[in-house]
Amino acid sequence: MVAKNAFAAAAIGMLAVLGLAASASASQGRAMLADTMMMSMMAPAPGMMMMSMAPAPGMMMPMTFKQPALPYPYTATEPFIDNRTNTIHFTKHLATYYTNLNTAASTNSSLAMMKLEALVPALNMGTPKVIRNNAGGIFNHLIFFKTLMMPTAMTNSTNNTMLPEDIATAINSSFGNFSAFEKNMTETALGVFGSGWAWLTYNPKTKALAVEPTANQDNPLSAGLNYSGNTPLLGIDVWEHAYYLKHQNVRADYIKDWFMVVNWPQVSANYKAAMSGDMSMLTSYASA
Ligand SMILES: [Fe+2]
């Protein structure tokens, strides 16, 4: 508990420098105040650039946020999500979010010290777009790819009889049955206007599951962006880059195919992590 509080205080101090401290909870107030005072001495005067934190010309930029390897072959989710889509999605789209966030971190050592699981819940309306979009983009895609798997009898099930017992019970308790959840998730994903996500989330206060959308690269954890603050267990990316090569404009077909390759044992593991408050587990990869 001590280590956790110390980490939270340090994180809030960094957020103060980033202009993100407004999202800190009241319980973190005292730690935030002390760290804000300390960190404010390190912050540049108004109007000044933080040039001292930029690498000298010719120096390599530090790779603060490192993209892990995909834990399965790009072909693993064929034929439902195709090799080419997975390859471009992981090696181009996700890689670009890493490049952009690392570029921002190269001139901002406070950002460079942040962990995604602390940064994403602290995002708010004052956060620079480059941080909001790219930190969210990385966090969301790590959850997305981690909750896909090769199609099996489990993923092909149209009910939850083959799902791990804990997540099956939670889905039944919150939605009535698996079909009702599937309908809710499908309609929410279809209802996202433009680019965004639909999520299965865990509410730490009520212990119930919910389905909710986010826009662009936002995440439900970001209460400061007017989302629920719930913990994401499973998310479907409904940006066109996630499905256009195979499904073109038919998002409904992509959603049906996505359900065929959901990694329910991983969703169950995410559920356990959410109940224990361990956010780092949601996006941890063996190769990271
Ligand atoms: Fe994506």
Automatic annotation (TrEMBL):
Residues 1-26 form the signal peptide. Gene3D superfamilies: Fe,Mn superoxide dismutase (SOD) domain (1.10.287.990), Iron/manganese superoxide dismutase, C-terminal domain (3.55.40.20). Its EC number is 1.15.1.1. Pfam families: Sod_Fe_C, Sod_Fe_N. Keywords: Metal-binding, Oxidoreductase, Signal. The keyword Metal-binding applies. The keyword Oxidoreductase applies. InterPro entries: Mn/Fe_SOD (IPR001189), Mn/Fe_SOD_BS (IPR019833), Mn/Fe_SOD_C (IPR019832), Mn/Fe_SOD_N (IPR019831), Mn/Fe_SOD_N_sf (IPR036324), SOD_C_sf (IPR036314). Residues 65-148 form the Manganese/iron superoxide dismutase N-terminal domain. It comes from the Eukaryota. Residues 166-269 form the Manganese/iron superoxide dismutase C-terminal domain. Belongs to the iron/manganese superoxide dismutase family. PANTHER family: 37S RIBOSOMAL PROTEIN S26, MITOCHONDRIAL, SMALL RIBOSOMAL SUBUNIT PROTEIN MS42. This is superoxide dismutase. It comes from Coccomyxa subellipsoidea.
